[in-house]
Amino acid sequence: MNIAIDARHMDVTTAIREYAESKLGKLPRFYNGIQSAEVILDFEAEKALVEVVVTAKRKATFVGTDRNEDMYAAIDQCMHKVEQQIRRHKDRVRDHQGPPHEAMQGGQA
């Protein structure tokens, strides 16, 4: 998975970069089809603005945005939003496929 961290109107410290990378590193647990992730960090009007854009297979895109006074809390909230979107997407894909083959064979005699 490719991870890009960009900053606007601020410099990214190594602590924030490592924190965001560690959070993004947990996303493949939820969905194996994740290809890339981009974190955009901004600081405007005395609040941190964080946007996380995750791209997965078959042009699936998940976006989470949060504005908070604390940069770490904003990253956490964005990741929570993206995780929810990924879970819903995975449920839709799994439910669309139908029951497994063994379940279809077990009911017939």
How is this structure best described in words?
The protein has three helices and four strands. It has 109 residues and is an alpha+beta fold. The protein has a domain at 1-74: Ribosome hibernation promotion factor-like (Double Stranded RNA Binding Domain), CATH 3.30.160. It has a four-stranded mixed sheet. Helix 1 runs parallel beside helix 2 (71-96). The longest helix is centred in the C-terminal third of the chain and has 26 residues, at 71-96. The mean pLDDT is 90.
Mean pLDDT over all positions: 90
Read across the widest sheet, the strand sequence of neighbours is: 1-2-3-4
Distance between the termini: 46 Å
The number of distinct helices, counting runs of at least 4 residues, comes to 3
Shape: elongated
CATH classification, class level of the domain at 1-74:
Alpha Beta
Secondary-structure map with pairings?
Elements: E1 2-8, H1 14-24, E2 34-44, E3 47-56, E4 61-68, H2 71-96, H3 101-106
Parallel strand pairs: 1-2
Antiparallel strand pairs: 2-3, 3-4
Key terms:
109 residues, alpha+beta, Double Stranded RNA Binding Domain, 4-stranded mixed beta sheet, 3 helices, 4 strands, 33% strand
Q: What is the compact description of this entry?
A:
By secondary structure, this protein is α+β, with helices and mostly antiparallel strands.
